[in-house]
Write a structure and sequence with these properties.
Blueprint lengths: L1 H12 L5 H12 L4 E6 L3 E6 L4 H18 L5 H25 L1 E5 L13 E6 L9 E2 L4 E2 L16 E5 L14 E8 L4 E5 L2 E4 L2 E2 L34 E5 L6 E3 L3 H13 L4 E3 L4 E3 L2 E2 L2 E3 L4 E5 L9 H4 L2 E2 L3 E11 L12 H6 L12
Antiparallel strand pairs: 1-2, 3-4, 4-20, 5-6, 7-8, 7-20, 8-18, 9-10, 9-12, 10-11, 13-17, 14-15, 15-16, 18-19
Helix pairs in contact: 1-2
């Protein structure tokens, strides 16, 4: 309304009549209890109003704000540094919360999932399987104590999953905090077996992922049996199992030295002290020949079946370690040269794979 009134006043001002007539017209049109307009006809215009008028309040606010800015002293060096620190910490906290609850970005360091994802792919990952309190300090990769929050979804066979690496076969804890990316091929309670590189779950042959690959490695390596999980099994990556994937409430037998060695690390990862005293296992200083599993577990394998360090070598994936699933590749570049040496940042940018950007992951 104010804008319309100003336009009308300017129009009246351009009329070819005396100033007195113009003033009378303006007063007749716009005189009311809230606002009175006056015009001096040297092209200057001013407005008076009562204190309840919104324009008056805004004008007073602008005057006050201008006075505050003019009175504000320049920041000292210390104040400037503190201001920058507060801004940085605020941004860091925001990124940590976003990363832990909703969505995160990961770079793929190895080729174990080729050709579904490639080395050097940057992936956006939703946290639908495992929102949590912040797990790391971004940019510094410093791990933090964290707690898992209720998740809206459960992982299933065929899902590509991102999880916190539990550690190598003989480690209770991983040496460093790392995120791994594998395909879920077995769920809690499933019996899994691989025969001549063909995967069976609960006796049923499983379909290959659309972009899975093999290296035409059709021979078992006897040395490999010393490196696969469990310790005393004679499995290879091509002929593995059968093995049951632990489910919460399952019973694990510890009747022999071999059974104890196979499951000692597993039990310790669940937070218990276990040892073998020569003929009997003790768990938390209590003699026992059985152990009741406290959590659900999953089995993960790489789509590059012959070149993947996965559950066949280091064991099961705890449910609480599974965080989410990749959505899309938002950037991709070559990370290594032909001699497998990592490229510097300039050569990485020079080797961006434009055709990978925007690819969905399934």
């Amino acid at each position: 309304m104010l804008f319309v009134q100003i336009i009308i006043i300017n129009t009246i001002n351009n009329l070819h009549c005396g100033n007195c007539v113009k003033n009378i017209i303006i007063l007749l049109l716009f005189c009311n209890k809230n606002v009175l307009y006056y015009m001096d006809f040297d092209r200057k215009f001013r407005m008076t109003d009562n204190k309840n008028n919104l324009f008056h309040k805004y004008r007073e606010y602008r005057k006050k704000r201008k006075a505050e800015l003019e009175a504000k002293k320049p920041l000292t060096v210390t104040e400037s540094i503190l201001s920058w620190i507060k801004t940085f910490v605020g941004a860091l906290v925001f990124v940590m919360i976003l990363h832990s609850l909703l969505i995160a970005s990961f770079i793929v360091p190895t080729g174990s999932m080729e050709n579904t994802v490639m080395t050097g792919d940057f992936l956006l990952v939703n946290k639908k399987f495992g929102p949590s309190t912040p797990q790391i300090i971004p940019f510094f990769n410093i791990p933090l104590p964290y707690a898992m929050l209720p998740s809206p979804c459960e992982p299933h066979k065929g899902d590509v999953i991102v999880f916190v690496f539990p550690g190598m076969r003989d480690e209770v804890e991983a040496k460093e905090f790392q995120y791994y990316l594998k395909r879920c091929v077995g769920e809690p309670g499933d019996t899994l077996q691989i025969r001549d590189n063909v995967l069976y779950v609960n006796g049923k042959k499983q379909p290959l992922a659309p972009k899975a690959r093999f290296e035409n490695d059709d021979h078992d390596d006897a040395v490999e049996t010393y490196h696969t999980f469990p310790i005393n099994a004679t499995f290879t990556h091509r002929n593995y199992g059968p093995i049951r994937i632990p489910k919460k409430g399952d019973t694990i037998h510890l009747r022999t030295t071999s059974e104890y060695e196979n499951w000692a690390i597993f039990i310790q990862r669940e937070g218990h002290y276990v040892e073998w005293n020569g003929h009997q296992a003790t768990i938390d200083d209590n003699a026992s020949n059985i152990y009741i599993v406290e959590e659900d577990y999953y089995f993960g394998m790489g789509d590059n079946r012959d070149r993947s360090l996965d559950s066949r070598y280091w064991g099961f994936i705890p449910r609480d370690a599974i965080l989410g699933s990749p959505i899309i590749c938002w950037l991709s570049w070559n990370m290594y040269d032909e001699y497998n040496n990592e490229l510097d940042i300039f050569h990485k940018f020079a080797n961006i794979r434009w055709n990978r950007i925007g690819h969905s992951i399934d």
